[in-house]
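Internal tracking record. Fields below are filled automatically when a chain is submitted to the structure queue. Please do not edit lines marked as system-generated. If the sequence contains nonstandard residues, flag them in the REMARKS field before resubmitting.
Queue: standard
Priority: normal
Entity type: single polypeptide chain
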Amino acid sequence: MIRRYVMYLFLLCGASITTFPFAWMIGTAFKTYKEAATPSLQLFPSEWQWHNLVETFQAAPFGTYFKNSFFVAFVVTTSVVLTSMMAGYAFARLDFPGRKQAFAVVLATVMVPFEVTLIPNFLIVNRLGWYDTYAALIVPWCTNAFYIFLVRQAFMGLPSDYFDAAKIDGCGHLRFLVWIAGPLVKPILVTVGLFAFLGSYNSLVWPLVVTGTDRMRVVQVGLTVFSGAEGVQFNLLMCASAIVIAPTVVLYFVAQKYFSEGLVGTGLKG
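SYSTEM-GENERATED OUTPUT FOLLOWS
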């Protein structure tokens, strides 16, 4: 019994440490600038400044930013799930010359840091005339080697008897992938989709490099308008951050069940 209470105490401490930054962000979002900029142990404002929400949306065209972010994240997520599913199935179930070597090359790209490919990718995008367009924000991220690896491992775990039985009934690889194998690895695909959405939605450096006007900016770039030479508007920055982070929190709770199953299925511990 004592051990259980000690475990609950540790879990409570861990939960408090985890949630404290979010509570501080929400509290700071509704403080005055002076109160937010003054070092204090006061978590919540003495008087809630609800007009900070209006000032936040007036500081930058966040409606356009959100539209761009959601559109880019949706297209990237859809593309990543499709390419990962097809490539993962090919590497797991199709027997073709050089399969192991090709998979090794794909997996090796995971070791290349993003900073190494930033300038070459920008030069390619610029020469294609994609600067400040949706193509620059979407096309370079339509596939991911790590997600291909995750989906391949999921397909490798399926018994071969499934495909043999489907083959006897006249089912080819494409139909088997869409109607049988895909639904069986649904938790992994949801996990991949969630990671892809978060990665695209939270991207800052790449959209900042390949966009030059407000009509193509995304929400993460929009947060930079609250930092300038005159200082940082802490209250409005935290207000904007709370608004920006809300969709990802909602998405996580919606997909939490499949996300947890996906992590267990791939042998990752969350």
